[in-house]
Write a structure and sequence with these properties.
Layout lengths: L21 H33 L16 E4 L8 H18 L2 E3 L18 H11 L5 E5 L3 E3 L6 H6 L1 H7 L26 E6 L2 E10 L2 H10 L2 H4 L7 H11 L1 H4 L2 E4 L1 H4 L1 E2 L17 E3 L3
Length: 292
């Protein structure tokens, strides 16, 4: 039909220019690739700063407040002892602690709720737990029975035994834990820095009258296990002493943290008592039991 127009849009004389998106996408990827080392470097720097200053790099690291003693000397005291005897024992520990920046703790054996009809010597364990609560940032507990004296007051415990390489040089390795013929032996390749529990032997077994325990989660586990009601009610002949020998021999988590050292290093006996070997009677002993 003449003059009729159809409703189709007029085709433009200049066609639209369609550009592919591929070049711009490729450019962005190239730019990101070029920036990647800088982004990774920034992330690594932030992580390093957080690691160094947050204190979260190691769960075992404690930031102790200024003035925190390195060692707490723990001695449980029987209230029935004479006042003179108790004062002499306390002064012996206080003198040594004052020389080296340590502190002392003297709970009574009656301070803790023990099970009925069990020896008061079991109070050693809650006393150590108590000391760890009072001094949570102190690295080491040094238990010394009230029947012993510190003889060498000039030497620090660190110099005497706690320095890892020093400890390694004197550890009794691959020997029966409980002499003379225990089938369980001490570890042969235990590193000094991994030790959390140090004590000695005498000719009859483990000598728990003098021992060192590193504070921390392992110590809490160990002391709680040792004080288990099952052991307290078992009627061991030597009470907590035989319970300790059982735990050390049959619980690998305890044996793996234990270092035995020669008796003269930590817990010698008087010659007159006949309780120790020649190793335990050395005149240059650090501490000495005066009653056995």
């Amino acid at each position: 039909m003449p003059g009729m127009q159809f409703p189709y849009p007029r085709k433009a004389s200049d066609p639209h220019v369609y550009t592919s998106s591929r070049p711009s996408s490729y450019g962005r990827r190239r730019n990101l690739k070029a920036l990647a080392p800088y982004i990774l470097g920034a992330v690594a720097l932030v992580w390093l700063v957080v690691y160094l200053f947050s204190g979260s790099g190691s769960s075992t690291v404690k930031r102790a407040p200024p003035g925190t003693p390195e060692v707490v000397i723990v001695t449980t005291i029987d209230p029935k002892l004479s006042e003179t005897y108790k004062n002499n024992i306390k002064e012996n520990r206080k003198d040594y602690a004052a020389r080296h920046g340590y502190t002392t703790f003297f709970p009574n054996t009656t301070d803790y709720d023990l099970m009925p009809n069990i020896p008061s010597s079991w109070s050693t364990i809650p006393a150590l737990r108590h000391a760890m609560t009072l001094y949570p940032h102190t690295p080491w507990l040094f238990y010394l029975t009230s029947t012993a004296l510190i003889m060498n007051t000039r030497e620090t415990l660190h110099d005497r035994i706690l320095e890892p390489r020093k400890l390694e040089s004197m550890m009794i390795v691959d020997k029966p834990v409980v002499p003379p013929d225990s089938v369980i032996k001490t570890f042969s390749h235990l590193r000094g820095e991994r030790v959390d529990f140090i004590l000695t032997q005498d000719k009859e077994g483990l000598a728990g009258g003098s021992m060192l325990i590193r504070t921390g989660e392992w110590a809490k586990f160990f002391l709680d296990a040792w004080f288990d009601p099952l052991y307290r009610s078992y009627n061991f002949q030597k009470a907590e002493g035989h319970a300790l020998e059982h735990i050390v021999q049959w619980h690998g988590t305890v044996l793996a943290k234990l270092a035995l050292v020669p008796q003269r290093i930590l817990n010698s006996y008087m010659r007159e008592t006949g309780g120790g070997s020649s190793e335990g009677e050395c005149t240059r002993a650090f501490s000495r039991e005066i009653v056995h």
